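sorry for the late reply, my laptop died twice this morning and i had to redo everyting from scratch. anyway the thing you sent over, i finally got around to it. pasting the sequence first so we're on the same page, its 488 residues, then the predicted structure underneath. double check i copied it right bc i was rushing
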Amino acid sequence: MSDWILAILQLLLAVVVVLAMMCGFYLLIFRKDDKQFVEGEGKYHGFSFGKYKVPIGFALVVLAVAAAAYSVTEIEKIRQTQRIENLEGTITTRNSTIDSLTKSVEKRDGKIESLETEQNELADANKDLERDLDAEQSLVEAKNNEIASLQNKIREAASTIARMDENIRHLERSAKLQQGKFDAQTEALEAARTAMRDAEQIARDIASADSERGLSPRQREHLDRVRSGIDAINDDLQYLQLRETALLRVGGKVPGTTYEIYAPHLQGEEPEIRGIGLFRFYSESFEIEGMRSRDELELIFQDLGEALCDAISEYVVSGVGLDDALARIDSLEKYEGLSDQLTVLAEYEYFRQQLQALAVAPQVYVRGYADGERAEWQNELHNDLPPTISVHPMSRETVSPLRDWRFEEMTEPRQLADQSGQYNNTHLPNLRGMTTREVLETIGTTCGLPGRSPDVIEAEVGILDGRLDPEFGGEDRKSRVFVSIGLR
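ok and here's the structure:
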């Protein structure tokens, strides 16, 4: 209840009480008959309580006093209640204010903690920056020292360049003099090479004339047929080629002619002098480039040997292309990386069989080569290889330029390793010759098995004493194959 309503009630109550008390006092003072029966009406104006009679005025005064006391009490209660409500509202408001202040304090504390955290992070960052600055300063000092050092080196280099310029001018003057000498040496070297080629050609002509001298007309006619047949074979070959060379001679017997069978893709510089070769080998090794190890090759020939020979026979008999005949071998797909080398071997065996069809008695010789070494080296020789091998040694009587093409008929042993079982560069030529013979004999033996073809004779391959070239280079890591043809 609001204060103004309570004030109005108090005012009204006060007016009522005052009026009641005034009426009561009036009746007590001025109305004497209140204590008497009203004549004519037979009534008494008052209250009766047994033998006691209370006048109306007195009663009104008492009631007014009682009502006033009661009203004051009730109004006081209302005021107390209102005070309590006001106090509760005040307390609620205060509590709300306290809660709001508490939240504000908590937010402030959170902000303070956040600020302290940020302050700590800034302090750490400041320390990191100080360390980085110290490091940068150290780097700058180091760079400055380095720059100072480089400047000193630049000054020294400038001095050196000046001296070098003087030396260059001196060398240019000397080079002009040396250029004349170099040109003269180049001309002399080219003249020597030309002379060597001319000597080789003369030697070939002499050897060819020597080999044809004493041939009967029948043998000459046979030799012409052999040459024509080999020219036709050459046209059929894709991976190999044949060229006639009358220089090679083993023993005193003069063959009808000799052909070298080689792979044209191996041709390097000066093929007329250095030769080309049939196989190329890895450095410091007697394994043929692109082929597997000896044991793996043996297994491959066991798996493919008869199929290769059948393909060669089909090529010889029916005229089917060798590539087409080989493509029909299903198991050849397993050896995709060896397809070119196997085709080379197939063409070699095809050539050998075609020679026999020309009614000639071919003798195959192989010769291994090795280049010079930059540093001494040793490798262990396989346990299953023999310690020595028989070769045809070079002739001890013939002089250059034919000495490199003349060999003794009787073979001599050659060591393939030293006493400790290690081989080095000096053993490589004959090791490479041995590897080449094994590969050629394997294909020849497979295709010359009894019952396969009566016209195919098992291949016989001799080894010529190898050659070690002192010059370092891959062109001499090879083996050459020669076919000496004797007329029947």
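Residues 215-487 form one domain.
thats about all i looked at so far, will dig more tmrw
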